[in-house]
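Internal ticket - ligand job 275, zinc ion:
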Amino acid sequence: MEHYHKAVEAILNAQALVITAGAGMGVDSGLPDFRGPKGFWRAYPLYERLGLNFVEMANPVHFERDPAFGWGFYGHRLEMYRKTEPHRGFHILKDWINRYGVDYFVVTSNVDGHFQKAGYTEEKVYEIHGSIHYLQCIKPCCNDIWENNEDVPVDYETMRALRIPKCKHCGDVARPNILMFGDWSWVGDRTYAQGKRYRRFLEEVRGKRMVVIELGAGTAVPSIRHTSESLIRSHGATLIRINPRESQVPSGQISIPEGALKALSKLDELLKKVA
Ligand SMILES: [Zn+2]
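stdout (structure tokens):
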């Protein structure tokens, strides 16, 4: 319980809040856990039969070689992310921001758009790996990024898309504006603009007491953990790392070895008792 009380104290004293989130944040909304080949193959048995893991499927090569196969994976995820409601933890964090009047920013490696879906303003979210809700040209013929309003039905027997979104400029295949593995054709302009807003925020809150709440960010793709830890050095931030499996923290920081929703609910309960 001691770590919970330390976290409560830090949140109550915070003047700026950075929420950093990895794949574990979505698990409590009911999204599948892709971490490790077993988690990925439990969600996608066909890919296990084909011997393809997450890194191999999240790869732009499929859009070039066999767009229906590439879109099979992303079409399924698109529908899943659209259908799924972000869990209550997203709203708990938003309540704190409003209740305590702290300035904030969200940094996430998730491409599901669930912070925006939970009501966070687009100007306060930095999606470091892009978003499934935006499209770009596969070549790309130009740097345009546009909203993904397409339906991409998938035949779940073969995991092949029955319709393939097209580039609205050249008519070639359009792909999700997601930074994939080994990806040289990703158009980063939307993410770069978000990153610019994030860095401006970091300048504005310099000298303020900053708390970083990190949720479900593992060591497999460590970019979110690096982001959190860099703020300890650059802004003297206090890190609250919420992670059921990889909760180790740099010395002096706060570790809560629980899932996101459980930990946030518990913190909310404690916060409501004191303020
Ligand atoms: Zn094009």
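Auto-summary: The pocket of zinc ion is lined by residues 137, 139, 141, 167, 169-170, 172 (CB under 6 Å). The CA atoms of residues 94 and 120 lie 8 Å apart.
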